[in-house]
Amino acid sequence: MLDGAIAVRDGAADASLRSILDRALDGVRLTEREAIALIECPGAALDSVMAAARELRDRVKGRVVTYSRKIFLPITNLCRDRCTYCTFRKDPGEPGAWTMLPEEIREWSQRGRALGCKEALMCLGDKPEVAFKEHRETLAALGVRSTIEYVGRACEIALGEGLLPHTNAGLMTRDEMRALRPLNASMGLMLESIAPRLRARGGVHQWAPDKDPARRLRMIDEAGAEKIPFTTGILLGIGETPAERAQSLIAIRDLHERHGHVQEVIIQNFRAKPEIAMADAPEPDALEMVRAIATARLVLGAEMNVQAPPNLSPNQIELFLDAGINDWGGISPLTPDFVNPEAPWPHVERLGQRCARAGFELRERLAIYPEYIDDEWLDPALASLTAELGSRIAGGIA
Length: 398
Hints:
By secondary structure, the protein is an alpha/beta fold. It has two domains: 4-60, no CATH class; 61-391, TIM Barrel, CATH 3.20.20. The chain contains 14 helices and nine strands. It has helices at 12-25, 32-39, 46-61, 102-114, 128-131, 133-141, 147-160, 174-180, 213-225, 242-259, 286-300, 317-323, 348-357, 383-391; strands at 64-76, 119-124, 164-168, 186-188, 230-236, 262-269, 306-307, 327-331, 361-365.
């Protein structure tokens, strides 16, 4: 139960919120209504919600916060979707459009391994061959029939250079995920938002068929059925309401309860850029992020790994730790964040110093979390490399 240090003010509304926090700390499964109450809590009660989230986090995760040392491989930035907040996607022939060649993938993998990287993040646009004849011709010249087949080749190259792949290729079929599983330590797909209205006329996903939330939920569910350690999360600031953020977290929780496969949940903030349609849209402020992080912790529980990208909120490191996160995601000493290139990765040493001053130990992890390194979740073909890379992390895998 809550102690006096994190009790909220008296009153009917406060008593109701206090009851929700009590239930969360007692390990009770919160309802959608309760999750919405948390994310919409009065400002005077936010400290209490954060304190409960911290306490819940500390029970299992302690005062350790993790990160993965990675390279970011943008296999192709061609994409059939057109989200109004994206600077990553390009059309064929547009300045900055690319598809990485095998020799580039190998060179970057070699350089990353030399810098101590252990993860190769495969990130790309959704099904560009459906939209672009030019990309179909590129794939044929590379000797493959689909973008996903080429991703598999990229994973083989990265594995050959001693890196564990993590693929985020947008929507994939169950067969595609099954084919990539022996080549990936983990995979991912951001839910972003459960709100179907974002696909309506004028919405951020109007021209993005792969952002249909029902389709994304289905893929996350199928990944669990295939025993794939999985990363997902929500994106704040794309037109969703706070209540819809809470509902998205509930949906992720429900899928994880079915399969136990969600290894981490990212709380990510939209960043405005001058070249996007949403250039003048407001970015989520720090308190919006804190509300979502704390709600995620209380909804998802003490054992979930809750992450916020440090390069998107460099001034909020300590605040996000106070709100209940236990992971910073992937950080690269070699490649930029190609999705948010204006936001440089933090220096790991400086991030570690800030975490230490806040009372936390920063530790490295692999692309697959320790709790998933077993015969059920990790393909046997990856066991030897995973063990080797884990042994290279100072102090062992976090």
